[in-house]
Amino acid sequence: MQIQLKCSCGDGSCPEWAIIELQGVVEVQPSFQDQLQNLEIGKLCRPSSQDVYTFTVGYHELTGTKVPLKKPFLVLKKVKLGDTEQSSNNDSADSAKVELEVVGIIRHRILFKTRPKALISQPVVKERARASGSIGSN
Amino acid sequence: MEPCMLSISGGAEAVLDLQENSSISVAYHPLYGPHDDLILLELDEKLLNDVIHQRVFLRGHPDENAVFCTQSKTYAVKFVGSSNSVLLIPSSNQVPEDGDSQYGNQKKCDRDVASVIKLAPGHLELVEIAPKLDKIKLLLSENPYKLEDVSAMEMEETETKKIGLYRWHDLVNEVQASEEELKSGLKALSAVEIGGHWRLVDESCIGMILKMLLHNSVLNDWTLSALDEDEVLNVLEADGFPRNIAHHCLSVYGDKVNKGEGRCVWRLNERRVCVHYARDVLRDGRMRIDQFIDEWKKRVPEEMLANFEMLDGEVLKEKLGVETWVRPFKVSSLPSDPSERFSILFKERPKWDWRDLEPYIRDLSVPGLSLEGLLLKFTRRVQASSEAEPVFSAR
């Protein structure tokens, strides 16, 4: 059985996708588990002209860089054809039920591999909290 | 599907071209999900051209590990998992369609948002491998071309005995190799295309044609080193052999000699003819070496000199008491996978001298591994002294 790797990109103009890579796991608050769509993960910033980036997720700030991939990644999409698409002749060796198509290429990733920095609140706010805490502990 | 507002600053571009002193929101895509149909494949830059021009195929049956084939090379496909969180962000103009979530989802194609479509669990990588050509012999041996088929062809039977018959396209679908490697594999097996099907010609059939050829060469006073193709084929055709099979016989046992002037001249290959007769003599198994050599010399054409060195990779000598015996052991019937090859060799004999072993492994080819590398990987080498011959055994 053979599947042709299809590519309708044209000469060297595959849409370029991107990767943001983090060590660890992004956790979503339990109440949002079923509604991930459109939920913001974080903010990606480039503070200077250098290829240095920060990614702020919740109260963590990660620092990373844009790195070219040693070898590009192709983004492939597997398409399962319905029964109606199959050819009706006996030579079924050709009518693969699966098609594979190149939909994008990735040449860079924004890689974060340092320990996240916890963004702590200002000391002033802390004192107030302590004060209100003492009132509350009556 | 609602059309996405074409925005140059959204999606992957927004991330990759992020300017200094700017920021962008990264969010889960409206269609975020497992998207198991989206796969990452790591590809060497030099293979990109082949992919763009759609010259790449994945080959294999559901029960086999798929291989990735260009026109000339074969690669194993391996999944490499990642423990990192790999957020995949599509190009802004492109959203993978997902029939199920067409309804009710507000598509947000905001210029300030880079949307993550999925978390990639890892990627596929390619490792160049030797093509898996053993299957060709397996398939073509299902229905080798025999002498009986000669008459069948004359009667132009079309529908009979279609089992075990493979066209080029069938082989491409069955064999995990690139087309060029498949072609080489067929050539190495001396396969021939007859009536659109690739066939292996049965040994006794082709032996019979060779016999007739040699017989006729004596009758007609032909020179075995300068056979005229037309003359030979005409005579064999008159004897009842199809022209293309007779031609195939010439190509198996001979080499074309360029004589120019449009004449096709062949020279019989001494080694190939002698090996054929050696196999003939050993048809029933092993023989005492002196007997074998006598018989062999008798069967070989007069003009040819049978030489034991021709039988490298064809026979094994063994000492039984004071006598030396020979028996058939063909490298061509051994598997091409190195691990399987060494396993069979060491089952045959636990210890091998280099001199005996070499003919049975010289055809092994693994990309990235030399013969020394293969020996290191699959054998244990023992050398009694610096002058002694090394001896190889299983690891």
TrEMBL record, chain A:
In which organism is this protein found? Answer: Rhodamnia argentea
Task: Report the InterPro entries cross-referenced here.
Answer: Ctf8
Q: What protein name does the entry list?
A: Chromosome transmission fidelity protein 8
Q: Per UniProt, what is one Pfam family of this protein?
A: Ctf8
From TrEMBL, chain B:
Q: Does the keyword Cell division apply?
A: no
Q: Which GO terms describe its cellular component?
A: chromatin; chromosome, centromeric region; Ctf18 RFC-like complex
What Pfam families does the record tag this protein with? Dcc1
Query: Where on the tree of life does the source sit, at the highest rank?
Result: Eukaryota
Q: Which residues cross the membrane?
A: none
Q: Name one GO biological process term.
A: DNA replication
UniProt keywords, alphabetically: DNA replication
PANTHER family referenced in this protein's UniProt entry, alphabetically: SISTER CHROMATID COHESION PROTEIN DCC1 (PTHR13395:SF6), SISTER CHROMATID COHESION PROTEIN DCC1-RELATED (PTHR13395)
Q: Which family does it belong to?
A: Belongs to the DCC1 family.
What protein name applies here? Sister chromatid cohesion protein DCC1
What species was this sequence derived from?
Rhodamnia argentea
